[in-house]
Amino acid sequence: MDMDKLVSLCKRRGFLFQSSEIYGGLNGFWDYGPLGVELKRNIKEAWWQDMISGHNELLISNGAPCEHQMVGIDCSIIMHPQVWKCSGHYDLFHDFMVDCKESKKRYRHDQVRGRWALAKEQRVFIATQSGGDEGLQETEQKALKFFNLRAKSLEEISWDGPLVSLITITDFDKVLGPDAKAIGTLTPPREFNLMFKTIVGAMGGEESSAFLRPETAQGIFVNFKNVVDSTRVKIPFGIAQIGKSFRNEITPRNFTFRSREFEQMEIEFFCHPSQSPEWYKYWRDRRYKWYTDLGLSSSRLQLRDHDKDELSHYSCGTADIEYAFPFLPPGEFGELEGIAHRGDFDLKSHMEGKLVRSGDELVVELGEDGKPKHRGSGKDLRYFNDQTRERFIPHVIEPSAGADRGTLAFLCEAYFEEEIEGETRVVLRLNPRIAPVKAAIFPLVNKDGMPEKAKAIYGDLKKEFAVYFDDGGAIGRRYRRQDEIGTPICITVDGQTNQDDTVTWRDRDTLQQKRIPIQGLKEELRNLLKS
Length: 531
Ligand code: ATP
Hints:
The protein is an alpha+beta fold. The radius of gyration is 27 Å and the shape is globular. The structure holds adenosine-5'-triphosphate (ATP). Adenosine-5'-triphosphate is lined by residues 215, 247, 249, 258-259, 262, 264, 335-338, 400-402, 404-405.
């Protein structure tokens, strides 16, 4: 699939716009248009419905069914700065960046790759930001320019190994930066904290600085006790939140995939430590199935368990759900969601202070003065089981999904072009549950009472469904307009409607048409949305 075509469809039909476009846009920020907002809202609502309000799943543990409750929460974006000190974000939430002294551009260290080229007795690491075939071609072109060779002299360059990450390179003086003409212009990697800083109140000093949350999860942890005390939830249970998060990404790119402002759908699931491996597996599988049920094909989706050395120091398991986005080189996947076993790290940190590993144990990190580097809240966040009389810090399983990456994956998966009767039909095969418009209603022609009848059907269906009315242009063109935005059904009022109160029902994917009574439309649409 050609990503440029999807991007242009998104703009043309009002799914996504560049933020502040009339001022030239702002890198890393996006606006959802009238159709995009519906699509993303449907995805978030499907998640909330399936994971929280409508959930009625059981985990079979040791042969016995184990129920669990799910509740929601909606926390503020700006929180007490101490939250980020104890969570580790203040000290550790950074990427490494390199600057180019020549082009003045900044890159994420791990996103620059390249390969060694040898010609005219000089060995140079030719860097690029692209991967796969594109990366190979770019490095070829750059090497020809650098060594001052013509295209037909390409064989004078010998290549030493495949594209590798800049992380593996130590001799920066031999690196030709992605946008540089001379070698040795990249600075050594430096840390860059990804949290956006802001000032709270009118005083404006350093002591009033705060951060926009880089994840929604911490709001859940700091409210754990509030939820337990104010509701009747019993462990195991989950708290869910959907909301905006902010990360000052060094190189936002790939459409909405890496943005600086994005939405997350996160669950923190609290359970007894002895049951946490089982719950980890449960959530990992359940979340993968959610994507396939909503239409992502398993050939482009993968569940990847992290290697031991990739795991955070407190985690006994993390898996990513990844999608083969078309803008990535073949064989590469991008993360849609991470499911992490977080142990008791978060609650314990908010009780005692920021934790670090010491041998096999997690201990409070001490500053140079021997006192805790970042003090916790001092509140007792343990859970008390009134039946077993046990008091413990629950373990946490965290399925953390991105609503924007999910939306983008569903769009990529749905986009098809097909030849029909010599014409190209663009169709978004979105699952009806998430399609922005469920049905479009047309009068076949604008006479003989058809528009009035179609308007009446539209008005009635609109009370329950997201429907659209269109009486402009030839019927074929109206079908195409709906196919392109993923509307599963088109309903047409025609000459026969006046005689027998039936309409045509046309299916977006099969293109089959059938006649159904107006009375039966709601039932048919309800069935469609259940599928
Ligand atoms: P990446 O490695 O791609 O930066 P991450 O591992 O830092 O992602 P998490 O901290 O696990 O991401 O965040 C959970 C989810 O939030 C991700 O799976 C993704 O869907 C979403 N997300 C994270 N960063 C961004 C971003 N910059 N733009 C859009 N979505 C994001």
